[in-house]
Amino acid sequence: MEFFVAQILTGLANASSLFLVACGLSLIFGVTRIVNFAHGSLYMLGAYIGLTLMEALPGHFGFWGSILLAGIAVGLIGVVIEMLVLRPVYRAPELFQLVATFGVILVIQDLALLIWGPEDQLGPRAPGLRGVFRIMGEPIPKYDIVLLIITPFIALALWWMMTRTRLGVLVRAATQDREMVGALGVNQAWLFTGVFALGSALAGLGGALQLPKGGADLLMDFTILTPVFVVVVIGGMGSLPGAYLAAIIISVLNVFGVTYIPQSTLVLMFIVMIVVLMIRPYGLFGREEVAGEHGQVGEPEEPIKPASAKVRAIVAAGLAMLALLPLYGGNFALVLTTDILIFCLFAASLHFLLGLGGMVSFGHAAYYGGGAYVAALLVTWTETPMELAFLLAPLGAGLIAIVVGWVCLRLTGVYFAMLTLAFAQLLWSLVWQWQEVTGGDDGQVNIWPADWLNDNTVYFYFALIFSVGGILTLRHLAHSPFGYALRAARDSKRQAEATGIDTRRVQLLAFTFAGFMGGLAGALFVFSKGSVFPNELEIVRSFDALIVVFLGGVKTLAGGVVGAGFFKGVEDVLTRFEYWRLVMGLLIIFVVVVAPEGIVGSLRRAWRRFGPGHSQADTATEERRT
Amino acid sequence: MQRKTFIKGLIAAGALATLPLTAAAQDPIIIGEINHYKRMAAFAEPYKMGMELAIEETNAAGGVMGRPLEFIFRDDQGEPGEAVKIAEELMTRDGAVMLTGTILSNVGLAISSFAGEKGYVYLASEPLADSLVWAAGNPYTFRLRSSTFMQAAMLAEAAAKTNATRFATIAPNYAYGKDAVAAFKENLLKLKPEAEFVAEQWPALFKIDAGAEVQALERAKPDAIYNVTFGPDLAKFVRDGTDRGLFDGRDVYGLLSGEPEYLDPLGDEAPEGWTVTGFPWYDLEGGPDGEFVKTYQARYDDYPRLGSIVGYMTVQSIVAALEKAGSTETEAIRAAFEGLEVDSAMGPIVFREIDNQSTMGAYVGTTALQDGKGVMVDWEYKDGANYLPSDEEVRALRPAQ
């Protein structure tokens, strides 16, 4: 019994930081609809700033003052981010802003490294709170007790603010109907800035408050990100009581998990999330999403049409140039181009899902990495010939996609996205943990192609045929009846169903096919590198694809491929420099702000407006739209 | 001899500094070094500094075979796929004669697999995974640093000398943690068959829930604890464990916990009385390791970490191999590495012919607090050669050639 109580207290103390960071994220999402991936970075900044202040300010007052000041400082940083990066892109396609926040992550990572150096910093102790209290004989650190008392007060203060103040009324109103709030004369821009600042300040506060339990390090931005998203989703996006309850559930369950099933540390919270979302598709206290229900935010997408003869000629010429690469490019050019081609196919498969299907997957790496692992495991354990393993890999990935899609398609929007992420994490954990079969973190090595393919040039052609073939197939599908049905399901589910389209089946098929193509890219990858590790299943890999798709242009057919080609190329150049993440982050933000329709979308618009042969009619449509 | 090269090095380094534009008479010998300079900056920076020191010394002394030595440092972002691409570029476009580098085991394994397939020599400097030279070993991959198995065996030897029988382990939930626990168990049970393992905790890497882990360990009431956590996890574990009295009256064995990289961030909260492997640079005097510390501190306004000496020894090993090979052909370098003897900064080491693992050892000692900082006391340098499995076992582990 004593032990049980002690465990619950530990869990409650752990919930503290998690709640603060999560409720900030939840507020921001509720009002602005921004999925703020940089929230972990704000948390990290809070920790570092708090640490610096604590070194300067001594004593009780210094310690608690530093925590408050860190929160305020991060809130101000939030204001800067909102005004410079997010404000220009509020009208961009749904979820586009998350790409901008991803750029912010990269920038903050390098800046933190520049300012605070690479070494982990241990947080200072809270003055007077070293040591333990004995509660029923069990030792509980004093600071834990303080945390678990403070947190409900912060939660209460927030609740009071939301229910009893004018600001709270506005925030709640904006959460329900942004446009109506604007129509009633509230300055939306400042409301958004204010909420973003508040959310950031809470993240900063969470970062500073956890210092005596840990410290500050450069990995903490990503470390906190997943649990925070899980908490927000379980609680229901936009709900503060939900975030509080979810933070407690996750933290307390985790403490019991550690004690009774020590191996569960990787998967527990994802399993909880899947279970909760199966029973309550919008989280414990969440409401069905209003935005994105009928069509998407921003201007409507123009109908796609087959490429004109001119475009076809250009693409054919480009392909011919590619096919002749071995004649004029060196060995490394072949290897680099093979990498880029594979990544293009991966991005194109996600683009198919996202652009045509309107299904935002945060876990597309599951199929890419899944395909790679299917091939690798077949080779390692059954000595399957390479050619057969290569063909079975996309099938395996497609199979995974059927299962995941079947479960996830009950949900829509951000909840759908988070559920795909949870499944990707489950698969990752399985591969990571099941060392006897998968090799765990040590991965699968010596997975080389058959002898006839082993030459870099031959493998380049192999990758070229499958990547380009795959991309063209995806493109062709967009113009097929299936593609039309898919877009109908995306734009208006009800109307599509009224015309006799089984939208769920169409979407599941699309999901499976995207997984299949992702798996094909994974199979190409594993045989070109000769090894595969759980990295290929990580969230980061999913985001890589997501970002290039958005930057390339979601609402254009070529967006995924162009974005992937462009950014993989740029990355190869940039990583040769010391502070490349800073530059990459700034570049992403720049593209987001300058070309909110993505590279392809913005080029197309520029071409229409300034290019040769633009007609009165084009300009007229153009003006009507803007 | 070490001192002489050091002085020569200083003079020549000074000469080089005043004449930065002196062109090398010969084309440099290029080595490709791949690492996670950004992702693991706290480890990669001292490592790179150690390398640069050795490169400067080598070139000041006339280079290798009369040619200057040049390293191309490339960042792989900690991504195995990226590392393989860079390896290809270094070997085929930049004209590197061999590859070295990496801290993370998975990246090391990816390069090793690639090197084995394409026939490039790869000296894995820092990755610890046992499989690198055993289960996934190949003739082209050599490893410098003492592996997980070797360091765990050293701690198991120390643990076997005590009366403790009930052991608990805590290790990050991934390959390194699992290997480290398995190796410790295997070696301890060999020396002390009555030992039992009463709890095994597996926190997720860098996501430790320290309070819960400490409670779980306490509940098992072990006599001794074997710790494999490191980095921010270690800091949290030590803080919560100290607060809750987990370490009182218990023996604690910490793998790598004594390395400055991990011990220094703990400041005055560094645990006392743990038996650890690490790098007590502050105590090293005389001997090649002491010389290294002196040179390093003279060259940089900083003290060496374990990574620094590993970086330094990596260059020493490469120079020795090139000189023994007398050529920059891959086959010659590979053959030279087999059985290569190096007078390294940690004393003489050998790259074993049987598995390409070097016999670099480790310092084992007890942690203590001095002037508000964690240090190792009563330490001893253990030669890695004594902590490897028997030749038959190794042969069984390595894939047939």
Q: Could you walk me through the main structural features you see in this protein, from its secondary elements to its overall organization?
A:
The complex is a heterodimer of chains A (626) and B (401). Chain A is mainly alpha-helical and 626 residues long. Chain A has 2 domains: 2-279, ABC transporter involved in vitamin B12 uptake, BtuC (Orthogonal Bundle), CATH 1.10.3470; 333-577, ABC transporter involved in vitamin B12 uptake, BtuC. Helices cover 73% and strands 3% of the residues of chain A. Chain A contains 27 helices and 6 strands. Chain A has helices at residues 2-32, 39-56, 59-86, 97-116, 142-164, 166-176, 178-183, 188-209, 220-235, 240-260, 268-279, 309-323, 325-328, 331-356, 365-382, 386-408, 413-433, 435-438, 456-479, 481-491, 493-498, 503-529, 539-552, 559-574, 580-594, 598-610, 616-625, and strands spanning 121-122, 132-135, 138-141, 215-216, 444-445, 531-532. In chain A, the strands form 3 sheets. Chain A has a two-stranded antiparallel sheet with strand order 1-4. Chain A has a two-stranded antiparallel ribbon with strand order 2-3. In chain A, helix 9 crosses helix 10 and helix 20 (481-491) crosses helix 22 (503-529). The longest helix of chain A has 31 residues, at 2-32. With 401 residues, chain B is of the alpha/beta class. Chain B folds into 2 domains: 2-146 and 284-360, Rossmann fold; 149-281 and 363-397, Response regulator (Rossmann fold). Helix content of chain B is 42%, strand content 19%. Chain B has 13 helices and 14 strands. A 7-stranded mixed β-sheet of chain B has the order 7-6-8-9-10-13-14, sandwiched between helices. In chain B, strands 2-1-3-4-5 form a 5-stranded parallel β-sheet, with helices on both faces. The longest helix of chain B is centred in the N-terminal third of the chain and has 20 residues, at 41-60. Chain B is globular. At the A-B interface, helix 1, strand 1, strand 3, helix 9 and helix 10 of A face helix 2, helix 3, helix 4, helix 6 and strand 7 of B.
